[in-house]
Design a protein that fits this description.
Pfam families: Lipase_GDSL (PF00657)
Number of strands: 6
Protein name: GDSL esterase/lipase
Family: Belongs to the 'GDSL' lipolytic enzyme family.
Order of helices and strands: HHEHEHHHEHHHEHHEHHE
Helix content: 25-40%
Keywords: Glycoprotein, Hydrolase, Signal
GO molecular function: hydrolase activity
Length: 374
């Protein structure tokens, strides 16, 4: 079964939701997205599905598109909701053939890291990293594509000044792959300043290209995700949140990363006073999905994957029967689950997060902050 991505592109390029009053007041010429599997919309499978890629098989894509598009969810991801709310077409993957990129492009690709491969090679971690395009590689792709978006350097700068740039999330794969190499957690924490500096450098590279409106997302609370809960069981009950069931020390890693990233954003704001940099929060909403599930229409339960291997473990997650592989099945209604495959979120979750980024409270400041509209 093929990804059908090129067919999908013909459809999604024509799809745009009606603009809200706030979105109409702040019109972006284009949206450019960089990231990993949280926002990949098909870059990994534009040339067909690799044999190992279960995420490009049903039930991925079942909710919105009806077939897999390369998105690692049952439907749309955050950047899709943002584009639609802004009254724009869904962003085409940057590697798509026969697509137009005048309204933006999505450079995100599954497996992406904040750091380049040389960083991991120097630490003996190359075998543990599956990187299909780091942040800085994606920025190179962006530069290489400029001739498809504008006809002169000045025209490009004018376009980028009127565009929204979303830079991330990055870091999840850097930390995760290091953990999957079974390095001790203090060593994983040692990566934080390197990763945050790399994200900051990426932001500055885009500012140098003319970007003045950027969104920089933080990390998810990985201690709440079935993948990590299954692979790294903690030895004592007190190492889990009493109400959430999440692994405290893994969530602490994400929290420390996010705090360091917010400090970096403050430094960049001071350095570039004419540039608007939004911190976008994945951590808080995901925690709320666990602690206040009913508020968002989710089932109140132990962190549990919608699509997984039923009967295998409390988290419905099994590395040998992951979503899209033999033995795995989707829950009947993904809209009442926050976790899709134990690693990524459902379309319903991404919709709540996108709304919180656009209007608050999950962004500082909100993308469509009334003080910024005009």
């Amino acid at each position: 079964m093929r990804c059908r991505l090129l067919v999908c592109l013909v459809v999604v390029l024509a799809v745009a939701a009606g603009s809200s009053p706030a979105a109409a007041a702040r019109e972006y010429a284009a949206v450019f997205n960089f990231g990993d599997s949280l926002t990949d919309t098909g870059n990994l499978c534009v040339d067909g599905i690799p044999d190992y890629l279960a995420t490009a098989r049903l039930p991925y894509g079942m909710t919105y598109f009806g077939y897999p598009t390369g998105r690692v969810s049952d439907g749309r991801v955050v950047v899709d909701f943002i584009a639609q709310e802004l009254g724009m077409p869904l962003l085409p993957p940057s590697k798509a053939k026969n697509a137009t990129f005048h309204r933006g492009a999505n450079f995100a690709i599954t497996g992406a890291t904040a750091m380049d491969m040389a960083f991991f090679e120097a630490r003996g971690l190359a075998h543990a990293i599956w990187s299909s395009g780091s942040l800085h590689t994606q920025i190179k792709w962006f530069r290489d594509m400029k001739h498809k978006m504008c006809s002169s350097p000045q025209e490009c700068r004018d376009l980028f000044r009127r565009s929204l740039f979303i830079v991330g999330e990055f870091g999840g794969n850097d930390y995760g792959s290091t953990m999957f190499a079974f390095r001790p957690l203090p060593e994983v924490h040692d990566l934080i300043p390197h990763i945050v500096d790399s994200i900051g450098l990426g932001v500055e590279e885009l500012v140098a290209e003319g970007a003045v409106d950027l969104v920089v997302p933080g990390m998810m609370p990985i201690g709440c995700f079935p993948l990590y809960l299954s692979m790294f069981p903690r030895p004592a009950p007190e190492m889990y949140g009493a109400r959430s069931g999440c692994a405290k020390d893994l969530n602490t890693l994400a929290w420390v990363h996010n705090a360091a990233l917010q400090r970096k954003i403050e430094q960049l704001r001071a350095k570039h006073p004419g540039v608007r940099i939004v911190y976008a929060d994945y951590y808080t909403p995901a925690i709320q999905f666990v602690l206040h599930a009913e508020k968002y229409g989710f089932l109140r339960q132990t962190p549990r994957a919608c699509c997984g291997a039923p009967g295998v473990g409390v988290y419905n997650f099994n590395l040998t029967s992951k979503c899209g592989e033999p033995g795995a099945y989707s829950c009947e209604d993904p809209s009442n689950h926050w976790s899709w495959d134990g690693i990524h979120l459902t379309e319903a979750s991404y919709g709540h997060i996108a709304k919180g980024w656009l209007y608050g409270p999950f962004a500082d400041p909100p993308i469509l902050d009334s003080k910024h509209l005009g």
